[in-house]
Structures are given as structure tokens and as C-alpha cells.
Amino acid sequence: MNFTARQRAILAGTILGDAFVQKTGSKNARLRLEHGEKQKEYLLWKGREFPKLFNGSPERIERMHPTTKKTYTYWRWQSNATPELGSWRAQFYPEGKKRIPQDLASYVASPLALAVWYMDDGYYSPIQKHSFLYLGRVSRSEADIAAEAIHRNFDLEPRVYDKKDKGFALFFSVAETKKLHALIVSDVLPTFKYKLSLTP
Hints:
It is a single chain. The protein is α+β, with helices and mostly antiparallel strands. It has helices at 5-16, 40-48, 83-92, 104-107, 111-121, 140-154, 174-184, and strands at 20-23, 29-36, 59-64, 71-78, 122-124, 131-136, 159-162, 168-172. Helix content is 36%, strand content 22%. The strands form two sheets. A four-stranded antiparallel sheet has the order 1-2-4-3. Strands 5-6-8-7 form a four-stranded antiparallel sheet. The termini are far apart. The model has no long low-confidence stretch (mean pLDDT 94).
């Protein structure tokens, strides 16, 4: 299976974001998508972009939060296992844990990849007019790689912020947020328009 340029962009954005690439053998892996109840349509959109990978329908799962004891619902859709996804896992999970690869710029080379990453892990403050792209539990050097990749490919100037318990994030000032949102607006799904400064 050879992914199209569009599929590679969506795959890069979603692996950097909320997806998990699960090892299923010595060379194969599968893609696990999980999104909350309100983002079911987003999960379906991702799966439909890969019609040869995803069969059947996503699974609705209910879990009780161990601390709050509240029950929450989310949707999971797991793909077929392929050696191509095994190659992606080798790049993004070199030691079994998700990492930002040194050559990230080659994966996030289009606005679509950045848009999917932002839909997954981006945040916009309508009051302060700035944005964050959360990176999770990565090292400072990995955060710097992410900032440099975005700068190199899109001429944007994000700054690395240590959000402490939330991990590292890329901060986009008001001016940079306007540039970022103008770049990705055509690829952001309607359900995520609230994350854009261009929303009326």
C-alpha cells in the first residue's frame, strides 16, 4: 500500500496529535484513532480518508475516570496492520515511546499536515488572540525541532513554552496566530472553526 501525498499529510498530523501507532509484529503496525463523543465526525473523517486501511465501524467505549469517578465516552477506530505503518512507527516510536523525529520538516511539509496537527492538539484563546500547539511529553530538544520545522516550512515564528504539567507547547503570538490560521483555514473542518481567529 502506497499512501498518497494527502494521506501522508493527514497521517503525519494525526500521529503528532492524538493517534497511536501500535506495533502488531516485527514489521507491521496499525493506527488507533480515539476521539471524544463530540469529535466522532472528526474520527470518521480521518478513517474515510484511508478507505483501504479502515474496515467496519468505530467502537463506542465508556470508561470511568479513576480519580473523578465520572463516566466518559469516546470512540475508537483501529486500522488494519501494514508494513507501511510499521515504517511510520519506527520513525515516531524509535524506542516504543512517541518522539518527534529529527527530520520532522519532511513530514509536516504541507498546510494540511499542520492543520490536522492543530485540530488534534491546537488551542486558540479568543480573548488574548494567541494560539498554542501542545506537544505533550517530549524533550526540550524535540520541542525545538518542532518549532524549527514549522519555521522552515511555513515561515512562522512559534516560541517554545514549558507548560509544566502539560508538557511543552509551541506558542504563536497574535501576529503569528493570524498567519497560522490563514494558512490552515481551508483544511480545518467546520467543527473546529472555533479554534480559528478568522471565525466571525
